[in-house]
Amino acid sequence: RERERESLYVLKLLSPLLRTGKVETGVLVGCLRKLQTWSFTAIVQEYRMFAASVARVELELFVELFDTDLVSLPTKLPAWLPPP
Asked: CB atoms < 10 A from the CB of 24, how many?
């Protein structure tokens, strides 16, 4: 329940920045790529390729500052996610 409230709070804070499906998906995928230990350059290239005209520098900064150490991962990870 607490985690749901925290998630809703973060979405509320970001809502002025998130206006289209491309942008939300790009931010989510960017954070996932960071968990997959992609370089930031590769993350930004992929984000810009798909976001095109709606790409926003503030969201790239959000992904750059996304702290993967604060993410709780399950003990059994899927094959596409490398161990921390």
From this structure: 15
